[in-house]
Design goal:
The protein is an alpha/beta fold. The protein has one domain: Acetylglutamate kinase-like (Carbamate kinase), CATH 3.40.1160.10. Helix content is about 30%, strand content about 20%. The protein contains ten helices and 13 strands. The strands form three sheets. Strands 3-6-2-1-9-12-13-10-11 form a nine-stranded mixed β-sheet, sandwiched between helices. It has a two-stranded antiparallel sheet with strand order 4-5. A two-stranded antiparallel sheet has the order 7-8. Strand 7 and strand 8 form a beta hairpin. The longest helix has 27 residues.
Length: about 350
Amino acid sequence: MAEEAAQEQPSPTAPRPVRCIVKLGGAAITNKGELESINEESLRSACAQLRQAMSESDGDGAPGKVLGMDWSRRHGDPADPAVDAERIAGMAGLGFDTNFIVVHGAGSFGHFQASRSGVHKGGLHSTLVKAGFVATRISVTSLNQEIVRALAREGIPSVGMSPFACGWSTKQRKLASADASQIIQSLHAGFVPVLHGDAVLDELLDCTILSGDVIIRHLSQLLSPKYVVFLTDVHGVYDRPPTDPNAVLLREIEVDDNGSWSIVKPALLQGNNKGVEISVAAHDTTGGMETKILEAAVIARLGIDVYITKAGTEHSQRALKGDVSTDSEDWLGTIIRSSK
């Protein structure tokens, strides 16, 4: 259905191939045990690493060099934000490769509202579902604004985009309409689009939840990024829940043309794609790690490498720069790639 949706929409070309689509995992940037609580340190670190990955210079990206773009006054701020308009006007450019797209999960935002009301199951005739649809969107868009602000404070010219507002919709939970023209136009203009999982309308169910992982898969099919990075709260994909002391990190997974996948590294699990246990939190309405692996496999079949690693680490910094190969023994994470 995603391929059909791509054919139905306007198809302006991006100025050059998108360098990277980044998924900021909800578990990495929020405190999932606390309702609507942002993990400020993790989010700040991820945004700083994104700035360094986008930088066109070899500088160290020190905070003193950052041109903050969040000029709004936050509640509790003692004074209005300082804006050096004269210095900014004299700048030739930002010195960034802004050909990135950011998609973030919801974490402790949205999932509670969606699961409590049953929005993901559909049925807008129900007052509870309709109220939950509104509540879910209030929650996820408020998180989107905070992430855009965090990126802007790092000097990244980011713009928030809601899939619902852009007209994305589903049919029986499968992507049916996905107009990416606004995303492409924003890339043309030098902005970094920031999308998120969202409550959307469904042709048969009335409504459901569109996950950020599905959004990334569709954008990868449409825009062919050089690589895709999933930043999570763990080092990658494990053969069982990572809380298990015997859990083994799967370093490399190959995907065949028919969609089947097999473990290449570590050698002790080679060829095994059945013994991987997937755990999903009870409140997660988007499928959690299972959805992530399945969508990553679709992306890998396109010839696009997918890196899954822990946010805020040296490994995530390397992944964002694309500085990872299948021979990188000192890199902690999971590479999902085509078997070709």
